[in-house]
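Objective 1.3, modelling of assemblies. Example input:
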Amino acid sequence: MNNKLIIKPLTGAAAVSEAMRQIDPDVVAAYPITPQTDIVMKFSQFVNDGKVTTEFVPVESEHSAMSACVGASAAGARAMTATASAGLALMWEILYIAASNRLPIVMPVVNRALSAPINIHCDHSDTMGARDSGWIQIYCESAQEAYDNVIAAMRIAEHEKIMLPVMVCQDGFITSHAMERVDILEDDKVKQFVGELNLPFPLLDTDNPVTYGPLDLFDYYFEHKRQQSEAISHVFEVTDKIYNEFEKISGRKYNRVETYEMEDAETAIVALNSTIGTAKDVVDTLRQKGEKVGLLFPRMFRPFPAEEIAEILARLSAVAVLDRSETFSGTGGPMLADIKSALYEKENKPVILNYIYGLGGREINPAHIEQVFSDLKEVQKGNEVEKLTYLGVRE
Amino acid sequence: MKLNIKDLPKIPERLGPGHRLCSGCGAPIVAKMVLMGTKDPVVVTNATGCLEVATTIFPYTAWKTPFIHSAFENSASTAAGVEAAYQSLKRKGKVKEEVKILAIGGDGGTYDIGLQALSGALERGHDFVYLCYDNGAYMNTGIQRSGATPRGSSTTTSPAGEAVPGKQQFPKDLTAICAAHKVPYVAQGAISNWKDLITKASKAFAVKGPAVLNVLSPCPPGWKHADDLAVEISEIAVNSKIWPLYEIENGQWKITYRPRENKIRPVEDWIKMQGRFRHLSRKENHHIIDEIQQWADENWDRLEKMEKATSNQGDSEEKQK
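Predicted structure (tokens):
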């Protein structure tokens, strides 16, 4: 590989805006919200310094941000936005419209708690609430991962078999505002990788007028939803292909399901985003003590790589699913439901513990992760352990 | 743009026949007339509403021009996105021709739920035309009151009841709200005055930056009038001054049509044509008609004052120097 090594000290937010600069989308429509603000601010500077050719639309709300992206993408432009928390919640209606119209919009999301009470810090209740909107969801542990995956997401979204929008999620403040060492690709490499966009049926092809968003009743709506499911069924194969291509230009390999020390693991933690970083450290320490522990990170959460995850987890004796959001279903967090359901068909199933943690930015420390592994050990010994724990809360 | 009624049929229709709007509906006439205001290709964005649902029942579409419906409250922001894409792709040479962008919404999608998106798009200065076809209620969902519903009107959420005789409030002044954004062109029109309306549409399309057209759109089932009266009822609205025709061009207010003395009608004539006001003919409700008349007169007076105050703006600035 003849890559020029470009290393920059960047926050997660800055890394994402750097990726956006290199992608140089035709249209960016965005509204500021903590902790996504740094992405929009930095990108605005690129616009006003003439570093990008993007038409920037500083909209009056996230609802309009997503609406403008829908208009721009349907018109034939490569469109991006970025948001967090309440902003994503305000977009909710239009998220479905973007996905259902098969518009390949890429949106970095900085995960933040939802109100009330108002809280600006990290949890995953925002994107978990949008998990059934038809968007592809990719989660990122670090600024590097966020940078890389925003670039890869563009290709996944725009693939002719997919044509669906993608959220690329990172943890608010923990990742978005922490400075990291980030390997940056050369501008030309990114430009070449994302390539020229040629969307089918653009509104701006006025010689061939098309109608987007018609009234679609009981006689056709279902077929259109079925086609959407069909597109989703191709996401895994396309993602694998794009991740392989991305490895060729970056030397960094991504997988839909990431594992850490899982080859001979007996117990494991399943978690998303920055918590994986903390947990890796704990796994290293426990491994030194001879404990067979591992980690599983469903990088792609929508669509959910259920079979692959079940294959890995079925042979374990106990698994802890860490959810950084609450469903209020009374049965645990959102990821728990997916993991349990993935394992249902398996003959041998691990005992599954669920931990709701880190809501509103409550810290998750190595000690918490150690406690989880210690609980899993108790399960292995045959002892009774609480199935649902609110980790780090004052009861 | 010189307009002759004989030439109108020669202008290609961009909203074709075969749509399923009610017989006698004003909305397709509004849309067709406004689309006659430019020869350039037009991309239409349309808020959820009668015009949208009845023209695009899948697998059919009545639109012979590129069209997108996204949601109820975002016609303006969807248009903003289309316009941004157009500017971007034109700059890069990927789109060569001149394209106009027309955002359409009913009064519910404009006065109420879409007002924020509209305000934002006007403030940002996108080069587009926003058209509100104002039929004075949420007709698509079954005639519910909106911010545009006239005082006294009976709707399904402001019904004429034993205790409350229809809608209590006067409509908000959307046209003035848009004008307050200091955009290059804002106008109010009616299908009865086709020449006035198409001229306004052509001005709206011609200006660089945002333009707004607020056009009265009679609704036979909502207003409860015969379905051959849309044009006549518009004409009486204009001549009774409850729907004045005027424009605000670069800050200058101008009444574009002054009914001659012998044409002026009391507002009551307009009210009496419509079943939605039937309860106002009761003696105890008659004061509401008087109030509406007063409201219309005051509105007209204000327009006259605005016209006077903003006429020859350039000259007075010159004099001050």
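The longest helix of chain A spans residues 85-100.
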